[in-house]
Amino acid sequence: MHLFYYLFFLEILIAVAAYTNVTEYVFMPVKQRTVQYLSDHRQEIYLMVALGVMLFFHAFRDPLSLVDTPEYYSACGEARLMSWGDVISKGYVELKTETGFALLLKLIVDVFRSPQMLFIITSAFMFFVLYDSIRRYSTIYWFSVLVFMVDSFAQSLFILRGFMALFVFLLSFPFILKRQILPFLLLSILAFSIHMTSIVLIPVYFLYGIKNAKYLALLLVSGLVIVVLGFELILPLIVENLLSNYTYYLLAAEEYEGGNWKMPALLSFILIFRIMVMREHFFEEGINRLCSIALIFAIALYVAGMGFGLINRIALYFSNLTFLILPNTVQYLRSSTLQFVVCLVYILFSGFFFLNSASDVLWMDYQLIKI
User: Fold this and answer.
1) How high is the pLDDT of residue 253?
2) Considering the chain, what is the average pLDDT of its residues?
């Protein structure tokens, strides 16, 4: 049985155990004070356990069992033989990665002498930021965890630099919300040094600063139209002149990297649902506005990038925020029962595709390292 099945059902069992009386029955022989502590800190403990299990499946993956990760594995060996000066000056060409990530490769292989530590350390970073983001911005912890699992976990196994840049972007959320541009720009530079395409994240800071909801909506819609109509002409020029390492994406077929109608259709449905449920709260200051902007960005990029692998990769920066967007939306349903039903339907719907994707060539051979 594919590891996705084990992970999916294990995460479901953890969520059920955490949010029912099962835990209390299990710990009944223990002191009442312990039971009370578990009850009082149920959500935090659940979050640590659930993400800890997912971290294990992520950090100890066999890099040779997936696509892309064997290249990072080989790059570790190459970086070990290079001087720090060569990594800075030639890393982009010889290691085929941006300078920031090349330096990370060099540091890890020099200190730990093991390529596997690259995947352990990057996974630990990702899940620490994921834990912090859910605690800060989600009102339904279990839904956020399960949405990340079914929507993003599989891709995060091999789209290493893209997800590293995404999680650096997540670290910038407090600075976007507090309008602190200097730390935001520093984090943006860090993300850019990991993956150049993360430059598309910078406009989010300035769009968030527009307080007039109608003007913001008009600007986003206008931008959507411009992007859709003009990207096919502009994209080759951008890639050939600025992103030379990504030219192979221009030749990608429509199916490659998910360049089809399914993702924009799903995100459009979520957008319509979000507008209907949230109404005047859609562009409300705070995480609401940030999630709404990210959702519209994702749809614009997927529509504009139909058939372009690179644009679909860029859209992942925004579409992989569903673990925050969906709980942030569902909380505005008045009935807690309806909230639960909507959450359950989405997990079952996306979970079906998550489990069905186990046969995908990108991760069909996914396995853990052999110790």
Assistant:
1) 42
2) 86
